[in-house]
Every structure is written in C-alpha cells, then in structure tokens.
Design goal:
By secondary structure, the chain is an alpha/beta fold. The chain is 41% helix and 16% strand. The chain contains 15 helices and 17 strands. The protein is globular.
C-alpha cells in the first residue's frame, strides 16, 4: 500500500483548511488517526463499554479481554518478554515520571549521578531535575557534536561508577537524530547504571526491540503512532518493576486493604491504580495493528525517501537553515532567515499547511542551537512528496510575504 492509498484511511486529511487542501506536517506533536482506530473506539463505546477486571458480566469480560489483549499487542510490539513488563500510562511523560519517582527515589542518593543529554524533551529533563533536588544527586549532560549527534567517547567520559541512571531519547523530536541506544545502554550497565529510553519519537517510526536494545525502561505514547491521546505504556524489566513501589494508590491496584495496612496486586496491575484508560488502550492496540500491518521496513523506507526528497527540494531555497544531522528520522526543523517561526507557521497555515513552531518542549536544545524557536515539519505514513512540494511552495510565498526582512 503506498502513501496515497494510506492517506485515504485517515478521514481528517480529506478536508480543506483556509480554502486549501490540508497538508498535515505535525505528526511529531501528534499523528492523525486511521479509520480502523476510530471505528475501534466507536465499537467499544457502542457495544461493550464496561469497567475491566472487576465484573463477571458479559460486557465486563469483553472489555477486559480487549484491554488485556491490547497489552499483549504492546508486548509483541516492543518484543518484551511478558505482559507483566508492560504498564499502561497516560503517555511518555507519565511513564518517565513513574520511573523517576518509584525507581529513582528508592535507588538514588546524595552524590549519585543522573546522566541525560541537552537534546531531551522537557519530559525527560524535569523529572530528573526534580529527582536530583529531592535526593542531592548530580544531574550531568552528555555533550552534543556540532551536528546534534552523540559521540560514544563522550558517553564513556560522562558516565561513571557514580552514575545510577542514564536517560536518553531514542529519536530527537527537533533534530531527528537517532541515538545509539544499544551502545549507550552497554556503557551504562558497565558502570552499574540503568538505561531509560524516551521512545516517544521512535516507537511510531522504527522497529523497537527492547531486548536487543537491552534498555531497562522504555516509554512511549499512543497518540504519536495513530492511537488516541491520553494513553501510552512503560516497558520495564520485570526484576526492576517487582522491586518498585507504586506511586498512585486506590482501587484496581490493590490485593487486600485493611484498616491500617494494604497489599498490592502483582505486575503489571500494581502500577495501574483506579479505573484504567480502557478505551485508550484498546484504541492504541488497534493503532499497533495498523502500523504493524504496514510494516516498519516500509515505514522507515518511506520516511527516508521523504527526508531525502525534502533535502533535495529545500537545498536551493536561499536563507533556509535546517538543523540536525543529514542522517535522521522524518523531522525537518528549520529557520527561514530572520523571520520568526511563528510568523512562518502562520503564513503556511493560511495555505492549509500545518507545521509546528516554537521551542518544541526542548528549550535547552534551543539554547544550544542559539535560537529562540524553530519551525518543524514532521512526517508519517500518510505524507507524500506532494506534501513536501506544498511546503516548499509555501515557504517561497512566506519569503515573498516577508520580503522586507530579506531586502
């Protein structure tokens, strides 16, 4: 199935915005949803809306089967050993906070080190900042190369025997950099640290095998891979999860509650307090089915072709700066002369072209790039070369609109 055929499966893309056909280039923020996911959510609410695990009636059994079936889809999607290693969360942010609070508070002490990079999304910076403040640990950063990549020699220099946690994004949401997670994990483990991976931008685009990466935790969000918002998952090695305490308490995650003491359910449910995100998990399972059917070889090849085509089309556009390495995932972050990215995005939006403008929840990286903000076009399975043509034509018009800036 080619991208044009795939695009037809996304109802939202068949519309006009500001009098122009919609060109959606903001999938790094959130992807659009295929009809299969929309219909799955509709089916749940129409036919078997019920709470899970607690009832023996037919609707409850159907909901539970679908919910736990979605967990097994995530297990297979990440190649985890078993479903006990898959915790449903509200998304990547919640998953990373869970690790920082549950594992971090128990295992990090004053003088210990936490290692991240300047390219991280705020969701993979602030939880570690707060952990360092709570414990007296030291937050350290692996420096970036001039093109926004990581050199393993720098990882070797920064990670020491005092390091307890290394947390790195798999793919940069700004630069498109694909980080060498497997090699970084080897260095972390050699020094006695655990490896945490922010997989928000990798899980939708490249095949993830947590056993091959040998990471200890891996977090991702459903809404970036065609699933609903408000749902994601945390993979964790079972031995680590078993020794961690939950951070949310209440119904669903308990085994026994007395007047003074309570005990928790076994994995994975001890980390899923309250009524879970049932429809979200089922919808994310449908999204996983959808992209698995397409296949990651096809997805990676398609996005590589889009990136190559983007560089070919954009290279002759004067005054355009593209940030990040040439070898990258499907993200093109750029600056058009001295025009503010918000102004560029506004002119593009008037032509029906949706891009992201701002600091992309990566202010330390913006400082490293020596910019306040950038514009970003990000691709997914439904994007075509015609979308990139529209972007290029839109940027030409933006440059004409702000001609006084370039005179």
């Amino acid at each position: 199935m080619n991208a044009k055929e795939i695009k037809k499966l996304f109802p939202i893309l068949d519309q006009h915005v500001n009098g122009n056909p919609l060109v959606y280039l903001d999938s790094a923020a959130t992807s659009q949803k295929p009809i299969q996911v929309i219909e799955k959510l509709d089916d749940y609410y129409r036919r078997y809306n019920s709470n899970v695990h607690r009832g023996v009636h037919t609707l409850g059994t159907m909901a539970t089967d679908e919910y736990e079936g979605a967990r097994d889809k995530v297990r297979a999607f990440l190649n985890a050993n078993e479903t006990a290693e898959v915790i449903f969360t509200r998304g990547t942010t919640t998953a990373l906070n869970l690790v920082a609070q549950s594992y971090g508070d128990e295992n990090v002490r004053e003088g210990d080190e936490i290692v991240i990079t300047p390219m991280e999304h705020h969701s993979n910076i602030i939880p570690w900042q707060q952990l360092a403040k709570r414990t007296g640990a030291i937050l350290k950063y692996i420096p970036l190369q001039h093109d926004g990549t990581i050199a393993l020699a720098d990882v070797e220099d920064v990670v020491t025997e005092k390091t307890k946690i290394v947390s790195v994004m798999h793919v940069s949401n700004v630069l498109g950099t694909v980080n060498p997670i497997k090699e970084i994990a080897t260095i972390a483990h050699k020094n006695g640290a655990i490896m945490v991976v922010d997989g928000a931008q990798s899980a939708p685009h490249i095949k993830v095998d947590v056993q091959d990466l040998n990471c200890d935790f891996f977090a991702f969000s459903g809404h970036k891979l065609g699933g609903p918002t408000g749902i994601g998952a945390l993979y964790g090695k079972k031995a680590l999860l078993e020794n961690m305490e939950p951070i949310e308490f209440g119904g669903e995650m308990i085994d026994f509650v007395g007047l003074q003491e309570s005990t928790w359910k076994e994995l994975p449910w001890k980390f899923e307090g309250g009524t879970p995100i049932i429809a979200g998990a089922i919808g994310m399972g449908a999204a996983i089915d959808f992209i698995t059917d397409i296949g990651f070889n096809e997805i990676e090849q398609h996005e590589k072709e889009l990136v190559d085509y983007s560089f070919e089309r954009l290279k002759d556009l004067p005054d355009l700066t593209i940030f990040g390495p040439r070898d990258r995932a499907g993200v093109i972050t750029f600056q058009l002369g001295d025009v503010h990215p918000h102004d560029v995005a506004t002119v593009l939006d008037a032509q029906g072209i949706a891009v992201r403008a701002g600091h992309h929840c990566a202010q330390p990286l913006m400082k490293w790039l020596n910019v306040v903000a950038t514009a970003r076009a990000s691709y997914y399975v439904y994007n075509t070369k015609e979308d990139i043509d529209a972007l290029v034509n839109g940027l030409v018009k933006a440059k004409e609109y702000f001609s006084d800036v370039f005179s």
